Amino acid sequence: MGIRDLRDLTMDDLMACKMTAQEAGPTAMRLKEVLEGADALPLPQLWRLVSKHVLHPDLPFPLHVKLYKAAYAGWDGEAQGPPPSWVPDPDAMRDTNIARFMQEWKGSELWRRLRTGDPTQDWPLLQQISFEDPESFWPAVLQRLRIRFHSVPSRVLARHADPDQVSWFPGARLNVAECALAGRDPDRPAVVWAEEGTPTELHTLSLGALAQRAQHVADALRAAGFQPGTPIAVDMVLTVDALVIYLGCVLAGCVVVSIADSFSAEEIASRLRISAARAVFTQDAVLRAGRRLPLYERVAAAGAPRAVVLPARAGDAVRGRLRPGDETWAAFLARAPAPGAAAPLRGVPSPPDAPTNILFSSGTTGDP
């Protein structure tokens, strides 16, 4: 099985994969060399060896398929699922977050008794423990992710006969944006981006600066009268300002309503209505391929609630006249003082099941 089927391949088999004799000969020799000493390898590692050291993109795809099927001859698909077409290098696997977690986690008695120390072998056991013994598994994961609770949960999982009544982390209160931004090196780069039209000119924002700017948005939202739980739409290009706004909304306990900048006024209106958004962050225009495409105009035509309007290019002034009640990005930020570098994050804590984002897919509601 597997290695025997690979060794049994003939020149005719290889040439049937749209190879010439000049291509098939060296490939057959290379395959023979690679299979030396590979008899004891598990089938996924055998395929990894062949795919890495025999195959390359210039060889015909039918050859890739034939060697894949030969390497996995005897694989029990019903019991093991589809055979993996990509298998990471063992050294790369040991360098992953999950492998490091398995190496460091003291775990339950079952974990200590059955683990082998090989992450490829221990992964199924870890997955089993994660759902059979969540009380031992998840606290270690949360600690590694640096999740900070304002109120610590009474337990990990409160089970119930009715699946709708199951409760994760009952009694807990946290702010997930605060968890993402706090407790890490503030000088570490958090965002690297280029402005439209200057793709080779890179800009960097540190984690500390990102946290400061997000807190400023959260403070300005509170100053503008928005309460935790309020849906706030964001209809923008994915810029660093959009990220700051997203995190600021979550810090303030609000619910982000994601709307694509490509939508028509009718599509924007539908999403605003379904989500009951109370405000919207948007841009005066979208810069794309040298063109200036109006966006605020579409948002206004959608009958949007009060809007905060950013310039298409950071540092520019907002172009055009705004509706009564709408305001520029600069005016919005002026509602609250910018926090200092040493100021702590002040995220609004919420239960773990509180929404942070309202998303739309093609089949969510049928409307739109």
TrEMBL record:
Parts of the chain that traverse the membrane: none
Domain annotation Acetyl-coenzyme A synthetase N-terminal: ranges: 128-179
Protein name: AMP-dependent synthetase/ligase domain-containing protein
Family statement: Belongs to the ATP-dependent AMP-binding enzyme family.
SUPFAM superfamilies: Acetyl-CoA synthetase-like
Biased composition (Polar residues): 358-368
Top-level taxon of the source organism: Eukaryota
Domain AMP-dependent synthetase/ligase: 182-368
Region (Disordered): 343-368
InterPro entries: ACAS_N, AMP-dep_synth/lig_dom, ANL_N_sf
